[in-house]
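ok trying again, last paste got cut off:
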Amino acid sequence: MRSKNEGHALTSAGEDYLEAIYRLMLAHPGDDSVRSVDVSELLGVSKASVNKALTTLKEGGYVDQTRYGRVELTETGKTYAAEVWRRHRMLRSFLRTELGVDPVVANDEACIMEHALSVDTTQRLMAYLERQGVVIDGEK
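nice, full thing came through this time. structure:
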């Protein structure tokens, strides 16, 4: 039996915070840092929750925080966040394209599922979708 988080160094919540920071950075090209309040708003959580999560992410080497409070992803954090966002988009595309799931439901459920897939399953599903001609959703 495999471990619950095989291939995942962080908890689901930790991955959600990394993904949120990454998505905010994508939304503002050229800006390599984000405000913690923007992370709070995107995830619908308190600023205190963001600060607690950032402490854990800093300790893990995934983010840095300037003295002005802006948050930057380290190279490790950026790579990890990009992979989580890729899994999200892949699952969302699969649910919408292959199963006909409502777009809002597909997005919500992809957010839950992205944390459970092993690296092997992710690679296999991605290869399957590519063979089917399914294009992974854009960055939004």
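cool. The chain has two domains: 12-79, 82-132. The radius of gyration is 15 Å.
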